[in-house]
Design brief:
It contains 13 helices and 5 strands. By secondary structure, it is of the alpha+beta class. The chain has 2 domains: 7-289, Rhopdopsin 7-helix transmembrane proteins (Up-down Bundle), CATH 1.20.1070; 323-418, no CATH class. The chain has a 5-stranded antiparallel sheet, with no helix packed on it. The two termini are 53 Å apart. This is Rhodopsin domain-containing protein.
Length: 419
């Protein structure tokens, strides 16, 4: 949205000079807030790409879209800087020279377009991420339809902004064209109503993409802690929804406030919504990095010489360990094959204890650092070991002969090491 303020009130205040406003400036505060949110979002996206490229070695469409959104966030910060240099941002409009005011509005015109596309790209990135998690075709169709809708809606909003003054686009920042009657633009009331309608649609899509991951993540074959963590992180999108609601409330009066640039509340909340969206959409991808750092920290502070395992063998989502096999582990049994089980192939540690022998998992604390137990499993693939993040498991598949009749069909030795 490009907010001009009531033209007559602005001109009257410029003529009066408003001397008591002369030394007031809020520019530094506004730039500090915008710079902080943009900086946090940038760090998050950089770490996300590090995890994808160097740890998971798998970069998806959602990552490319998020990088594009981050570039637009940096462009928005550049627009804020240009607006500050023009003398409009954080100052009272009555004290801004008309030529500087026109330059300020020119920056704000492109600012409005850029942030509009950026917010839509964040939602498209979330939709692409969710499409990789769900096998259900109906979910895929719904998410694809959401992406198509977002693209069409964003283009329609951009058209409203670009052609606000018909084909005379420069009238968006050159107020002389309006005063001289060379351009006819939407009235403040019409423009405000259009903006509120568009913002209402944005709020609905914000809520949709904040809540949609919850049922999808909850159906993943992951432990309860992982599910709660992911839902909580993705739930940060609700803060973006709150920012969008606040922005819409402010939007109702933005065009009728002759002093709107001093606090610039509407665009501030618009930028907060944008960067929190980037943060919420990128944090789930950092889980492998957090787990790796946690494991390194625990091994460094351990005084028991505990055995270090790989914390980086995640699947392409970055949400669970891959099941891998190794014959080179230094265990004294080079002929055996060792499998590392992860969050998609396990049960909680409490479930593991209930399926193990009492002697192995007794109350003796000396036996918790490293124990060996047998877990029986049938043909329903129920030998999936779910470990809490403080534990790691290595299963040893031994050669065996199927006993006659019913009974145990498979024996797995599980070694548990606490980190």
């Amino acid at each position: 949205m490009v907010a001009f303020g009531p033209l007559s009130a602005l001109l009257e205040r410029q003529a009066a000079g408003a001397p008591h406003y002369k030394h007031e400036s809020n520019t530094a505060n506004l730039m500090a807030i915008n710079g902080t949110f943009c900086g946090v979002a940038l760090v998050t996206v950089v770490l996300r790409m590090y995890v994808r490229i160097f740890m998971l070695k798998s970069v998806g469409t959602d990552d490319y879209v998020m990088v594009a959104a981050m570039v637009l966030s940096l462009a928005v910060l550049a627009c804020f800087s240009g607006e500050a240099a023009a003398g409009g941002l954080g100052h009272h409009p009555a004290l801004v020279d008309p030529a500087d005011w026109s330059l300020f509005l020119h920056w704000r015109y492109f600012h409005s377009l850029i942030i509009m596309f950026g917010i839509s790209l964040v939602k498209i990135s979330v939709a692409c991420f969710l499409r990789r998690l769900v096998p259900n075709k109906n979910y895929h169709r719904f998410l694809l339809g959401s992406i198509v809708f977002l693209i069409a809606f964003t283009l329609s909003c951009a058209g409203t902004l670009i052609f606000n003054c018909g084909t005379n686009v420069s009238a968006n920042w050159d107020l002389e064209l309006r005063v001289n009657g060379k351009a006819k633009c939407f009235s403040n009331t019409t423009y405000t109503n259009i903006g509120i309608f568009n913002s209402s649609i944005q709020i609905a899509t914000d809520v949709l993409f904040a809540l949609l991951p919850v049922p999808i993540v909850w159906k993943l074959q992951a432990n309860l802690r992982t599910k709660i963590t992911l839902v909580g992180i993705l739930g940060l999108g609700l803060f973006a929804c709150a920012a969008s609601i606040v922005k819409t409330v402010l939007q109702a009066n933005a065009l009728f406030n002759a002093d709107w640039t001093f606090h610039d509340s509407f665009f501030m909340w618009n930028n907060i919504e944008f960067n929190i969206g980037i943060l919420a959409a990128s944090l789930p991808s950092l889980r492998p990095l957090f787990v790796k750092l946690l494991g390194a920290s625990q091994r460094f502070t351990s005084s028991n010489g505990r055995n270090g395992q790989s914390y980086g063998k995640y699947d392409a989502d970055g949400l669970a360990y891959r099941k891998t096999k190794s014959n080179v582990r230094n265990t004294g049994n080079p002929g055996r094959e060792y499998y590392e089980f992860g969050s998609r192939q396990s049960t909680e540690l409490g479930e593991l204890r209930r399926g193990a022998s009492v002697r192995a998992f007794g109350e003796d604390p000396s036996k918790m650092a490293g124990v060996t137990s047998t877990v029986t499993a049938g043909d329903d693939d129920s030998d999936k070991i779910m470990l809490d993040q403080d534990f790691h498991a290595v299963g040893i598949d031994k050669d065996w002969t199927k006993p006659a009749g019913s009974g145990i069909t498979k024996t797995t030795t599980v070694q548990i090491a606490r980190y």
